Amino acid sequence: MNAPLPDVPEVRVVGLPLLTSGFDLVERLDLGMHLKVHGPLEPMAGEPLAALAEQIALRGRGGAGFPFARKLRSVADAAIRRGVRPVVVVNGSEDEPACRKDTVLINRAPHLILDGALLAAEALGARTLVIGVTRDSTEASMSAALAERGLGNRRGSRLRARVQRNPVRMVTGESSALVRSADGGPPLPPGRKVRTSDSGVGGAPTLLSNAETFAQLAVAARTGAERYCRTGLRDEPGTVLLTLSGAVARPMVLEVPTGVPLSYVLQLAGAPALPQGVLTGGYHGKWLDAATAHDAVVSRASLDACGGALGAGAILPIGQDTCPLGESLRVAQWLAAESAGQCGPCYLGLPAAARGLSDVLHGGGPTALEALREVTRAVKGRGACKHPDGSAAFLESTISAFTDDLAAHVLGGGCGRPVEGVLPLQEETPQGETPSGRRLAVDWTLCQGHGLCADIVPELIQLGPDGFPSVADAGVPRYSEARAFRAVRRCPALALRIEEDPSAAPTARAAAPTALPPGRGRRALGSGRA
Description:
Blueprint (H helix, E strand, L loop, with lengths): L9 E4 L17 H8 L7 H10 L12 H15 L4 E5 L9 H8 L1 H15 L3 E6 L2 H13 L11 E6 L9 H8 L23 E5 H13 L1 H4 L10 E6 L7 E6 L4 H7 L8 E4 L5 E3 L1 H6 L4 H6 L8 E5 L5 H14 L6 H18 L3 H15 L7 H15 L1 H9 L26 E5 L9 H5 L16 E4 L4 H10 L5 E5 L5 H6 L19
Parallel strand pairs: 1-7, 2-3, 2-5, 3-4, 6-10
Antiparallel strand pairs: 6-7, 8-9, 8-10, 11-12, 11-13
Keywords: 4Fe-4S, Flavoprotein, FMN, Iron, Iron-sulfur, Metal-binding
Protein name: Putative Fe-S, FMN containing oxidoreductase
Organism: Streptomyces formicae
């Protein structure tokens, strides 16, 4: 089973390094070494900077791929129209277990990221810079980089710069969640569809892009558009950073020019010669079969054309000796657990989709497969952020890519292969997001099949064909605690109870409430609805 990826895995480069220049000299480029390797950088006015980004076809490298020049001009226009100073935000919240490229950049080349961010801030006239991170290592490295430049969050400074630390959660990297946390709120999507270029941090127009995007901007500003475009493809010039993991001999972050064959990239990482499938774009990405992956090249357009996705740059092959649907189920369950618990498509739909895939694997037949397809269709386009959409796309790709294995599970007794756990997941619960340490249990000697518990906490309890709960007990995530206690109190047969989860970490049990909310008696702990 694959261990979780370290914050800074091995880094390699194909061709001449741009983003990773100097990595062969030192582990971390402090300001002095950064200037020796990259040289000084002159400021640029807003329109020349936007024109540079346009000439090099710079798109966001966090997954969405939005054109940077258009975003820069939108922020400038909104700031001028409203007569306010804009804000620049660097998104270094790389919380997916299969992605480490931005984390590597922040840990080893933080000043290259700051160069790009400060270029944009100067061009826009911004007076606030926020760098969002989620790891101890990235917080320490970026805080040190700000100190090396004499930047801080001091009142009266020409530019106030600070590091915003958030928990390691899939949803905290979403742009609106980062903006909300920078304003002092919870690091969760607010559910409102507001463009950050119109209203972001403090309500001001905000230029928000990920760490690699700003680093690419800094490289291009030094080299110029013509020289920058000599590397890579004509319509997607430059290099990209990829994170290679899964069934590989050497997990790594790789800087590679666009246009390099994907098969060569996999070979460098020691992937199987004939992988069963290659997941492109990470856990919000899409699967490619071996033949398609062999013909693809590293570029956004090429991967899109063959049914894959560049996304956040994660590439994960799996070998022939593991069940691809079982591997995908592990990821689907993790994606469901990453829900912010704010909207039904996420906290209800994603667990239902994971259960649907589990039913398919365990003999549910064509009915289970059709139910899975229906759930994934229902989830898309209805969430408070893009997490439900990305998760649904991953599940749809899974059942489309592995048709032979799907047929073996749906029509037969399964594919006969074990689940090796080759797709990396987080081993420990992220800081600040410990589980409740409780389980919701059904007492079958009392349960009369009223079914009200399934109405109150459908994310934990569903009714089986006989009208009784289909599970005997279920772990209670933080966001479901209040509903779980309500289900216990309202069960007419007193068949539900909240128990301590023996498998929970000690910190989770310590953080879990030891009693019901004030005003509730001990009897309510054993009451509920099943």
